[in-house]
Amino acid sequence: MDEFASIRHWTSGRQSESWQRERGVRLGIGDDAALIDPAAPIAGVGSPYEYIMAMDTMVETVHFNEVTMSYEDIGYKALAANVSDIAAMGGVPLQALISVSVPRQLGPEPMRRLYDGLYACAEQYGVAIIGGDTTSSPQHLVVAVTVTGAVEAGQALRRSGARPGDAVVLTGPVGMSAAGLHFLLAQRERGADALAGERVGQLVQAHRRPSPSVRAGRLLLARGTCHSLNDVSDGLASEAWEIAEASGLVVTLKEQQLPRSGSMAAYAGAAGIDPLEWMLYGGEDYVLLGTIEQNDAEAAQAAFHKEGLPFYIIGETSAGDPAVELLRSTDRGDLRQPLAKRGYNHFE
Ligand SMILES: Nc1ncnc2c1ncn2[C@@H]1O[C@H](COP(=O)(O)OP(=O)(O)OP(=O)(O)O)[C@@H](O)[C@H]1O
Ligand SMILES: Cc1ncc(C[n+]2csc(CCOP(=O)(O)O)c2C)c(N)n1
Ligand SMILES: [Mg+2]
Ligand SMILES: [Mg+2]
Ligand SMILES: [Mg+2]
């Protein structure tokens, strides 16, 4: 199958013109470029709105390998990671462009499966796939996604808006993806062993199929009390540092209040690893970390729970030079431990 037949094989008949039109698309896959109506009414978003644009890339051996992810998972997660950046601005995702660099020996079927996963995620979050690019790759598979979204003009939630005295909040558990990855990699090295007895299904799912917090981002924006927001890709500590530096303040995380999934903690125990390491530094959680006016934090939590969405109040901000600290309760009283600006870093 040549390049053009391959693209048709992966993409044709997946999304109808009318479905794409509702997302502002005037011309999708097939010409030199796509055409977007910059002022199309978007369901659920007040106008005037602003466009949001972001991109994230996944590289074989860096973000996935043959034991950690199926082709369907790679496609799903590549788009989900991008949708998460739109959620982190308080927006709704609209369209995506997909670039794939494919090892010559791969053949069309694995890529078809990758697109099955990609379109499954697109349907889940209402994203129109409007084009992309295809090249061969000398060795590894690379998937780069550009995503657009919309947010009410002037309302986007930035990393830089946190104020001293805010509550620090999180829209889901952290550390599960890193635990799932640990299991998958350990399994490769040692074969299915004793660790497999733990409840690892949820952890593997968290690693392979993250659920970006789009509804949570919209709820936070609508409250009008959320001052800053970021999504957790590189790890909780790293993202907290980004808010601390962008906003010029201290972020204090309370160890007791960090959401600790039971299956993650059980697996960490069996693997002899401190679960806090995964929770703070693991990454790929794709939940939202934000700050919100202290006097609205509990009401926000109640509103989230009413919608069936998780919401954790995990700390507070204070005036001071940018820093992140962990408040731990010990026998000898409270301990403030500075947290390193550490997390997943491609160049370390
Ligand atoms: N190669 C690049 N050229 C120009 N801008 C870039 C480049 N890489 C990243 N950026 C910009 O830097 C900022 C931070 O990007 P970064 O990728 O660190 O955030 P993120 O996507 O939220 O995190 P992650 O990639 O870990 O999911 C964004 O504004 C992004 O557009
Ligand atoms: C095989 C394999 N080894 C390691 C990891 C861990 N990992 C890779 S990239 C990243 C941060 C987010 O990426 P980015 O900063 O590019 O958004 C993390 C935690 C993995 N997923 N697969
Ligand atoms: Mg990025
Ligand atoms: Mg991000
Ligand atoms: Mg990202």
TrEMBL record:
Record keywords: ATP-binding, Kinase, Magnesium, Metal-binding, Nucleotide-binding, Thiamine biosynthesis, Transferase
Function: Catalyzes the ATP-dependent phosphorylation of thiamine-monophosphate (TMP) to form thiamine-pyrophosphate (TPP), the active form of vitamin B1.
Positions with a binding annotation for substrate: H63, E284, Y344
Natural source organism: Paenibacillus catalpae
PurM-like C-terminal domain ranges (all copies): 163-321
Residues given in the record as Mg(2+) 4 binding sites: D32, D85
Binding of Mg(2+) 3, residues: D32, D85, D231
Coiled-coil residues: none
Superkingdom: Bacteria
Statement: the UniProt record of this protein carries the keyword Transferase: yes
Miscellaneous comment: Reaction mechanism of ThiL seems to utilize a direct, inline transfer of the gamma-phosphate of ATP to TMP rather than a phosphorylated enzyme intermediate.
A single MF term (Gene Ontology): ATP binding
Record-stated family: Belongs to the thiamine-monophosphate kinase family.
This protein's encoding gene: thiL
Entry keyword annotation includes Cytoplasm: no
First-tier enzyme category under EC: transferase
Reactions catalysed according to its record: thiamine phosphate + ATP = thiamine diphosphate + ADP
Ligand binding (ATP): Y115, G132, D133, R159, S233
This protein's name: Thiamine-monophosphate kinase
Domain PurM-like N-terminal: 30-151
